[in-house]
C-alpha cells in the first residue's frame, strides 16, 4: 500500500528526548517499511526515517527557541498533505483534530489515532460535529469519555523488539521513575514509596515550563527531605536502556486516565517489572503478577516492592514479546487501512459533516 504518516511537528520523528507520539510514529513507519509498504512521512526536517520524508520545518518546533506559535507550521503541514493526498491509499494522521475539516473530500482514505486524553470538556462537541472520521484509540479505557464516534479499532502501542535488550540477571537495586514531572504523573508518590521501601529512587524526567511551579513547590522540597533520591533529568533513547534495565522496578504511580503509558512497555522490554496504579490503560497493559503489580494506593505499592522477587524478569520480557512489538502494531494498522472504504473502492458515497451526500472518488489500493 501507499501510506502517508502525518506526525506532529513539536518533536522530530523519532524525538531526541521526550515525545511519546513521535516515537510511536517512528516505530510504526519503520515497521511498515519493513513489511514492504511504500510509506511517506510528513514531519519535521530533522526526522530520521527509511520512508520518504516530506520535511515541513527545518527542526522540531520544541527545539527551536524562535518558534512562539505552532499553529502556522501545522497549517503548512496540512497544506502539504492536501496537495499530495491523491498519491496515497491511506493517510494516517497523528495530530489529534486540526486536519478534520480539511480531509472531508478524501475522508474515506483517512484514519486518525488519538494519542492524548479524551476527557477534556471541549472535545465531545467537536467529535459530534465530525462523526464520520475513522478514529483509533490506543487503549479501550481511552474511549470512555467520548460520544458515539466512528471507531476503527484499538491498537496498542508497540516497540521494535531489538530496541531495548532485557537485563535478566543484572539490577542495581534502585527503583525508577521515567517520564515527565507533572501533577498527574505523581512523582511525589514515587518518592514516598521508595522512601518507605528503603530503596533508592532515580528520577529521569523532563520539566515543562507549565509544570515548573509544581516542581519548585511540591517535588524539589521532597528531594531535600528524603535520602537516596537522585534526579537525573531528561534522558535520551540510548540512556533509557541502562536506566530501565538496571532498575529493580519501574514506578508508575499515575493519578489520571493515562491513554497508554509507553514507559510501561519500555520497562517490560528491558525485563523490568512495573508497579503501576490502577488508572487509565494500566489494567490493559500490565499482567498482574507476571509483568508487574497493579496497586490501588501507596501502601499496596510498598508491599509490591517487597514482592518483586516473586516476578521472573524473563517472563516480563516474554509478556512484552507476546503483545507489544512494532510488527504487531503495524499489522493491526494495516488491517485498518485495508478496511477503509476509500482504500478499497473506486467510488463511495459518504455524508459530509452537514449531512449531505457527496460522491468521493478514490484510487483502489495498491
Automatic annotation (TrEMBL):
One of its GO terms (molecular function) is glycosyltransferase activity. Residues 18-124 form the Glycosyltransferase subfamily 4-like N-terminal domain. InterPro entries: Glyco_trans_1, Glyco_trans_4-like_N. Residues 168-310 form the Glycosyl transferase family domain. Keywords: Transferase. It comes from the Bacteria. Pfam families: Glyco_transf_4 (PF13439), Glycos_transf_1 (PF00534). The keyword Transferase applies. This is Glycosyltransferase involved in cell wall biosynthesis. It comes from Sphingobium vermicomposti.
Amino acid at each position: 500500500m501507499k501510506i502517508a504518516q502525518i506526525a506532529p511537528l513539536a518533536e522530530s520523528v523519532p524525538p531526541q528526548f521526550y515525545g511519546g507520539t513521535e516515537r510511536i510514529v517512528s516505530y510504526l513507519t519503520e515497521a511498515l517499511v519493513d513489511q514492504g509498504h511504500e510509506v511517506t512521512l510528513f514531519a519535521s526536517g530533522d526526522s530520521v526515517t527509511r520512508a520518504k520524508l516530506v520535511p515541513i520545518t527545518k527542526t522540531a518546533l520544541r527545539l527551536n527557541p524562535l518558534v512562539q506559535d505552532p499553529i502556522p507550521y501545522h497549517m503548512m503541514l496540512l497544506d502539504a498533505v492536501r496537495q499530495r493526498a491523491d498519491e496515497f491509499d491511506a493517510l494516517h494522521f497523528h495530530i489529534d483534530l486540526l486536519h478534520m475539516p480539511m480531509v472531508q473530500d478524501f475522508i474515506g482514505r483517512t484514519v486518525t489515532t488519538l494519542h492524548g486524553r479524551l476527557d477534556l470538556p471541549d472535545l465531545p462537541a467537536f467529535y459530534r460535529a465530525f462523526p464520520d472520521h475513522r478514529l483509533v484509540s490506543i487503549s479501550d479505557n481511552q474511549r470512555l469519555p467520548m460520544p458515539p464516534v466512528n471507531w476503527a479499532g484499538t491498537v496498542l502501542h508497540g516497540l521494535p523488539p531489538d530496541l531495548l535488550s532485557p537485563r535478566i540477571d543484572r539490577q542495581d537495586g534502585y527503583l525508577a521513575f521515567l517520564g515527565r514531572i507533572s501533577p498527574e504523573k505523581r512523582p511525589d508518590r514515587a518518592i514516598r514509596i521508595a522512601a518507605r521501601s528503603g530503596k533508592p529512587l532515580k528520577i529521569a524526567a523532563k520539566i515543562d515550563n507549565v509544570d515548573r511551579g509544581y516542581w519548585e513547590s511540591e517535588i524539589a522540597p521532597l528531594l531535600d527531605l528524603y535520602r537516596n533520591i537522585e534526579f537525573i533529568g531528561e534522558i535520551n533513547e540510548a540512556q533509557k536502556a541502562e536506566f530501565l534495565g538496571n532498575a529493580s522496578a519501574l514506578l508508575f504511580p499515575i493519578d489520571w486516565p493515562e491513554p497508554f503509558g509507553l514507559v510501561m512497555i519500555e520497562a517490560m522490554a528491558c525485563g523490568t517489572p512495573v508497579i503501576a496504579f490502577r488508572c487509565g490503560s494500566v489494567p490493559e497493559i500490565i499482567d498482574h503478577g507476571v509483568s508487574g503489580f497493579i496497586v490501588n494506593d501507596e501502601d499496596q505499592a510498598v508491599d509490591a516492592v517487597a514482592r518483586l522477587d516473586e516476578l521472573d524478569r524473563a517472563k516480563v520480557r516474554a509478556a512484552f514479546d507476546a503483545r507489544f512489538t512494532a510488527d504487531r502494531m503495524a499489522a493491526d494498522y494495516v488491517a485498518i487501512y485495508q478496511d477503509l472504504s476509500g482504500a478499497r473502492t473506486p467510488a463511495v458515497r459518504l455524508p459530509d459533516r452537514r449531512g449531505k451526500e457527496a460522491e468521493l472518488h478514490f484510487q483502489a489500493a495498491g
